Write a sequence for this structure.
C-alpha cells in the first residue's frame, strides 16, 4: 500500500458531530501497491489508549470515501481512534461478513466453549454460525488458521496453530492464555482465504492515534436520562442582572424636595406619616390635606442626576452583553482551557450566541447614553505595520450593569457606527443600603478586522412617538371633585417600543397636570385635586 506522502498517512482528523453520540473519522487517501487489488480500512476505537489495538478491529470500511461517521458512543467519553488500511483481492466475497451499513462490516466474534491446549486442532466455540467456512482467528495473542467448521467447532489447518509467526498457547474459557492483558474472545481476521488468495494484513506502519470527546454542540441539546448535561454557567464571572431589575424603573426627576426623620426610611423612600418639611401637595400643604407623606429615595436621586448629565454629555451606544450561561460552543474542548478567539459560532465567548444586545427600556431607540472622558489617539508600530492603540475611560448609569468583556458599540451624531469597544474593567462604588452608585468603565477600542464586528446589532429601535388621551376625570376614592373644576382629560406622549418611558407628566389641562407612574406593571395616573384619570 502507498500514500502520496509518508507524512500524510493514516488518520487525518477526528471530530465530534455534536449530537452526543457520533464521531467523524477522516483519513488520507491510500492506494494499493498492486493496481488490480483494492484497499479497505480497519477501524479501532477504545476508551483506553493502551487497549486500543488489543480490543481488536471494531469495523471494516471498504468504500471509496475518505471519511466515515460512527455512532453509538456514550456522551462525555474521551475515546481513542486509529485506522489501518489493508490490501485485498477484489474477488473476496464480503457476504461472509456481517453488514451493518453501506460498505461497513463487523468481524464475527465468539467465546471458547471449553479449554484448549497449545496443540489442539479442534476449537470448540459457543457460536460459529457467523464465521466464514475458512479463515484465520485471533485468540488472545495467537493467530489460528482453520480450514473448515463443523457445527460450532473450527477445524484447524495443518500447521495452523501459531499462524503467521505467533506463539501457540494454552487457552482457557476465562480468557487465560499466559498473557491476561490481552483479549479474551476469538475474532476472525483477514489473513488467508484458500491457498491462492492472499488477504494482506492491516499495516501498522501508518498508525496514528487520535482522541475525541463525544459531546453535545449547538443546535443539539443533551439528554438528561444519561446524567450528562451541558455546562451552562460561567463559573468565572458573576451575573449582576438583579441590579438591573431593581433599578430600571426609577422615576424621572420631578425637582421637588423631601425631608423625613427616619434616615433609613427616608433613603428608601417609604411613607412614614410624620411631618419633616414635606412636599408640594403633600399633607402639610393647604391643598393637600389628607395626602400621604413619603420619604425620598436617595438611590433614585442619584440615578436621576446621572441621567440628566448623560442626556447632555453622553454618546449613544448599543450594549452587547456577554452571555454567562448557555450552550457550550464546540470550540470548548477538554484539552483546551479557553475558547477559540476566531470561532465563527461563539466569537471567542465560549457560548453559542456569545453576546446578546441589550435594549435599554428608558430610551425608545434601545440605546444607552455613555459619557466618554477625553482620550488620546495613539499609534503602535508593529512588525505587520501601524496599529492604533486606544484606551478610553467612560461613565455609565447604574443600570444596566455592565461587566468585563461586554462590548459597547459607539455611534456618531450622524447615526453611523464609529467603533466597538471591549469593556476590560469596571470600577463601581456603593451608595446607601448596598445599592450601586455608578459605573466607571475601562474600554479598549477593537480594530475593525476583529470577528466581533460580525455581531449584528439593531442600531435604533425607535419608531414614531404615540399620543394617547386619558379618560375623563373620576373622583379619587374617599374624596369629592371640586365643583369649580371642569370636566377634562390629559394627553400622554410615549413610544410603543419603550412603554416604561410613559412614566412621566401628562400634558397640562384645566390648569394642572398629573404624574404617570408604573404601579405593579400598570400605567397609573396619580391623583391630584381629589381626582384622577384612567388610561
Amino acid at each position: 500500500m502507498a500514500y502520496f506522502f509518508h507524512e500524510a498517512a493514516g488518520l487525518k482528523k477526528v471530530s465530534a458531530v455534536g449530537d452526543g453520540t457520533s464521531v467523524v473519522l477522516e483519513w488520507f487517501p491510500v492506494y494499493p501497491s498492486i493496481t488490480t487489488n483494492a484497499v479497505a480500512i480497519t477501524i479501532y476505537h477504545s476508551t483506553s489508549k493502551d487497549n486500543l489495538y488489543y480490543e481488536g478491529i471494531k469495523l471494516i470500511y471498504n468504500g471509496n470515501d475518505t471519511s466515515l461517521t460512527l455512532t453509538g458512543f456514550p456522551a462525555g467519553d474521551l475515546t481513542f481512534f486509529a485506522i489501518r488500511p489493508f490490501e485485498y483481492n477484489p474477488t473476496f466475497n464480503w457476504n461472509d461478513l456481517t453488514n451493518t451499513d453501506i460498505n461497513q462490516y463487523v468481524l464475527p466474534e465468539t467465546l471458547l466453549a471449553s479449554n484448549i491446549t497449545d496443540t489442539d486442532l479442534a476449537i470448540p466455540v459457543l457460536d460459529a454460525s457467523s464465521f466464514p467456512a475458512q479463515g484465520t482467528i485471533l485468540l488472545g495473542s495467537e493467530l489460528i488458521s482453520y480450514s473448515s467448521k463443523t457445527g460450532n467447532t473450527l477445524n484447524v489447518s495443518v500447521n495452523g496453530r501459531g499462524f503467521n509467526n505467533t506463539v501457540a498457547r494454552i487457552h482457557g474459557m476465562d480468557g487465560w492464555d499466559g498473557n491476561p492483558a490481552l483479549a479474551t474472545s476469538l475474532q476472525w481476521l483477514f489473513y488467508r482465504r484458500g491457498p491462492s488468495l492472499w488477504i494482506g494484513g492491516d499495516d501498522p506502519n501508518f498508525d496514528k492515534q487520535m482522541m475525541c470527546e463525544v459531546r453535545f454542540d449547538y443546535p443539539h441539546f443533551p439528554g438528561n436520562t444519561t446524567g450528562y448535561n451541558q455546562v451552562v454557567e460561567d463559573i468565572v464571572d458573576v451575573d449582576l442582572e438583579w441590579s438591573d431589575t431593581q433599578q430600571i424603573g426609577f422615576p424621572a426627576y420631578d425637582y421637588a424636595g423631601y425631608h423625613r426623620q427616619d434616615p433609613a426610611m427616608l433613603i428608601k423612600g417609604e411613607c412614614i406619616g410624620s411631618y419633616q418639611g414635606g412636599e408640594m401637595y403633600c399633607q402639610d400643604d393647604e391643598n393637600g390635606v389628607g395626602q400621604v407623606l413619603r420619604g425620598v429615595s436617595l438611590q433614585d436621586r442619584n440615578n436621576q442626576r446621572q441621567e440628566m448629565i448623560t442626556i447632555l454629555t453622553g454618546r449613544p451606544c448599543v450594549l452587547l452583553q456577554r452571555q454567562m450561561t448557555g450552550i457550550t460552543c464546540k470550540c470548548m474542548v477538554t484539552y483546551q482551557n479557553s475558547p477559540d478567539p476566531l470561532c465563527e459560532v461563539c466569537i471567542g465567548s465560549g457560548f453559542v450566541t456569545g453576546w446578546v444586545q441589550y435594549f435599554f427600556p428608558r430610551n425608545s431607540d434601545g440605546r444607552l447614553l455613555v459619557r466618554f472622558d477625553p482620550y488620546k489617539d495613539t499609534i503602535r508600530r508593529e512588525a505587520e505595520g501601524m496599529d492604533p492603540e486606544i484606551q478610553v475611560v467612560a461613565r455609565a448609569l447604574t443600570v444596566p450593569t455592565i461587566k468585563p468583556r461586554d462590548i459597547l458599540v459607539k455611534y456618531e451624531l450622524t447615526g453611523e457606527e464609529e467603533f466597538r469597544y471591549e469593556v476590560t474593567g469596571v470600577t463601581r462604588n456603593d451608595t446607601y443600603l448596598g445599592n450601586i452608585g455608578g459605573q466607571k468603565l475601562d474600554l479598549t477600542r477593537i480594530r475593525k478586522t476583529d470577528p466581533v464586528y460580525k455581531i449584528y446589532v439593531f442600531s435604533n429601535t425607535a419608531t414614531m412617538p404615540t399620543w394617547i388621551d386619558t379618560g375623563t376625570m373620576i373622583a379619587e376614592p374617599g374624596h369629592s371633585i371640586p365643583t369649580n373644576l371642569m370636566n377634562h382629560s390629559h394627553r400622554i406622549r410615549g413610544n410603543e417600543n419603550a412603554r416604561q418611558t410613559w412614566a412621566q407628566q401628562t400634558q397640562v389641562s384645566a390648569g394642572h397636570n398629573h404624574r404617570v407612574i408604573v404601579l405593579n406593571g400598570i400605567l397609573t395616573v396619580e391623583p391630584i385635586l381629589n381626582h384622577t384619570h384612567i388610561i
User: Anything to note?
Assistant: Residues 241-250+297-454 form one domain.
